[in-house]
Design brief:
It holds the Pfam family F-box-like. By secondary structure, the chain is an alpha+beta fold.
Length: 636
């Protein structure tokens, strides 16, 4: 039986109230029926029920109404917006977008600038330049949207623009990208310095055929290793003059690394040599290794890490002038049968030799043709205690190319409503975009993770040598890849760009890939009481990192010049036949928080920017692929 309770046609099913005839009701059915009514119909129904009650029921009803009124008190809406925003910072973006619909008061709190400021700081905690705060607090929302879109472009491999830098005439073998400055070395016997934003060459140094470079920004010192001569040159990038010539190898140089004290070189003669680059003196030569070194790394200013192509990692003490440990990459997962099986062939046989190597601070990335390994050296307890006793450096509001370029990309894009947060409070992880947070500032956390020493309270630097790394590095992630030949790493973002060999064979796989390693911690996110940064022992091994093929603007130019004039496409070189051609085989790569730079076999260099809105993935493809950013952040 149904009852028409209003002239407007609202219908109520009386059977829901009748129940089983013995005083029992299907409460879920009653709630469903009542909630399905319009507001005016519900009020009419309540009036009918109250009118049908006995006078003695009134006091009981008043008590019930008072109870429900107290239970539905909107505490957040009653608080000042600043305090309400502080509470909502503990929600993820997806949760914020859900609670935004509660009421207009909640919507206003969700869009409070302090929440957006928090999200912006989280997304840029690992950027090399501090985030410049906008003059208008209302600009935090569109700024966050642009930052989020940048990270999403990287996640999906959507290059927004491609620009060419022309100058080299032979293999571009090495690239170093520091902010807006790009340094390239080539077999054409030149080192060139570029202004990436302007797309212009600013300096050119004549040298021999260059095989490797390293740069020390604090000292403005550049070190170059030669391909066919066993010498290393040290240059000043202030005066653009040669400071030192370091000669100690029989054959060409394969890798160099520089610190404030030392230059380390690894030669084709299988030796590693340590120099005092200021005095030009050789300190120690670590004799022939079992195989060629693919890379060297300086850790804690006193320890050298050398990695050979057969997957053996050796550590050397400069102070003690001896090797202190040796590990095999294929034995680092001995306690895990599945991982051990996947790594068993690393360094075994010609097809499983290491192809490229990158390192920064305590982080290290090694790659064969089919596997990328992310590793990190653990700190001893003494190191941790020192870091907990020093204060956290503050973030300066220095101009940031990140902010300016992002703000420019937002200008031509209409803003949409989204969500917000407050500065540097702990809460749930934002997933693939948001890094793990600690009580320390994000930038201090990044420094400690890379093994950089923060300043003490009185401003002095702790120069005491730290751990000597006698234990093997911690294996953080294993990423399976196609047949890659070259790559680069952004250590702060934990992002990797790799490329296959663009061979002349018909049907060859000619692609460039991106992947971002996301720390998977054994415990929940830290609280404000946590005082120590995340260490490798706190992180579980990740075997699920996705890898994306770069498309967007790169895809437009992959097969030829037909995309000339398309959005984000700069002026093309003469006789351009496409990016996915053997002539533009990637020989070197560099990676920043906004760009991927590729040096090619014909000497060309092109810069792919991931800031902008020019290219996007079709919505149906995003849904099918389960885009992690949209799933975890709920923001678009």
């Amino acid at each position: 039986m149904q009852l028409d309770i209003t002239s407007g046609g609202g219908v109520f099913d009386i059977a829901a109230l009748r129940g089983d005839g013995r005083g029992s009701f299907d409460e879920a059915e009653v709630k469903r029926v009542v909630r399905s009514l319009r507001l005016s119909d519900r009020m009419r129904l309540i009036h009918l029920i109250l009118d049908s009650c006995l006078p003695g029921d009134i006091s009981q009803m008043i008590r019930l109404l008072e109870k429900y009124a107290a239970s539905t008190l909107d505490i957040v809406a009653m608080l000042p917006q600043e305090l309400g925003a502080k509470i909502l910072t503990f929600l993820t973006i997806h949760e914020l977008l859900e609670v935004e619909c509660v009421s207009k008061a909640w919507q206003a709190v969700v869009h409070h600038p302090s929440i957006w400021r928090q999200h912006c700081l989280e997304l840029t905690w690992s950027d090399p330049t501090p985030l410049k705060w906008p003059h208008d607090a209302n600009e935090w929302e569109p700024l966050y949207k642009a930052l989020h879109h940048r990270e999403r472009n990287f996640s999906l491999g959507l290059a927004q623009s491609v620009r060419f830098l022309r100058g080299h005439t032979n293999f571009c073998t090495t690239l170093i990208l520091k902010g807006n400055r790009l340094i390239s070395g080539s077999y054409d016997e030149t080192i060139r310095v570029w202004d990436v934003a302007a797309g212009k060459e600013t300096h050119c140094l004549k040298a021999k055929a260059i095989s490797c470079l390293d740069f020390l920004p604090d000292e403005e010192v550049l070190v170059a290793g030669f391909h066919d001569v066993g010498r290393v040159h040290v240059y000043s990038t202030v005066t653009w003059t040669q400071l030192q010539t370091l000669q100690g190898h029989l054959y060409g140089i394969r890798s160099v690394a520089i610190s404030k004290k030392y230059v380390i070189s690894a030669g084709a003669d299988k030796a590693i040599v340590c120099w005092d680059w200021r005095a030009g003196q050789k300190i120690v030569r670590f004799g022939q290794q079992t195989n060629l070194n693919i890379g060297v790394q300086i850790v804690d200013d006193e320890t050298v890490v050398g990695v050979t192509v057969d997957g053996i990692v050796r550590t050397f003490s400069i102070r003690r002038k001896e090797m202190i440990s040796q590990f095999k990459l294929n034995e680092l997962a001995a306690g895990d049968p599945l991982t051990s099986a996947r790594l068993s062939q690393v360094g075994v046989g010609a097809n499983n030799m290491l192809q490229w190597f990158a390192a920064k601070g305590r982080q290290m990335t090694c790659a064969t043709k089919n596997v990328i390994l992310h590793l990190e050296w653990e700190e001893n307890k003494k190191d941790k205690k020192k870091k907990s006793e020093v204060s956290t450096p503050t973030t300066e509001n220095a101009p940031s190319p990140t902010t300016s370029s992002l703000r420019h990309s937002v200008a031509g894009r209409p803003s949409t409503s989204t969500s917000m947060r407050s500065p540097l409070t702990s809460r749930k992880s934002l997933g693939s975009v948001t890094p793990s947070r600690t009580a320390a500032s994000p930038r201090a956390s990044a420094a400690s993770r890379l093994g950089m020493s923060p300043r003490s309270v009185n401003g002095s630097m702790d120069t005491e040598p730290t751990s000597i790394m006698t234990a093997p590095p911690k294996l953080l992630s294993v990423v399976e890849t196609p047949d890659v030949a070259v790559g680069a790493v952004d250590p702060l973002k934990r992002r990797v760009s790799t490329a296959t060999r663009f061979s002349t064979r018909a049907g060859a796989d000619r692609r460039i890939f991106l992947s971002t390693y996301k720390e998977r911690r054994k415990a929940d996110s830290p609280t404000e009481e946590d005082v120590e940064p995340v260490t490798p022992s706190d992180v579980s091994l990740d075997m699920t990192t996705d890898i994306a093929t770069i498309g967007g603007a790169w895809g437009v130019l992959a097969d030829g010049p037909a995309g000339e004039g398309a959005p984000g496409i700069g002026r093309l070189p003469p006789d351009f036949k496409g990016l996915a051609t053997p002539g533009l085989n990637p020989m070197s790569m560099a990676l920043s928080h906004e760009e991927v730079v590729v040096g090619c076999a014909d000497g060309s260099i092109y810069v792919m920017s991931f800031v902008g809105w020019e290219y996007s993935q079709p919505r149906d493809e995003e849904f099918l692929e389960g885009d992690a950013l949209d799933e975890e952040q709920g923001y678009e």
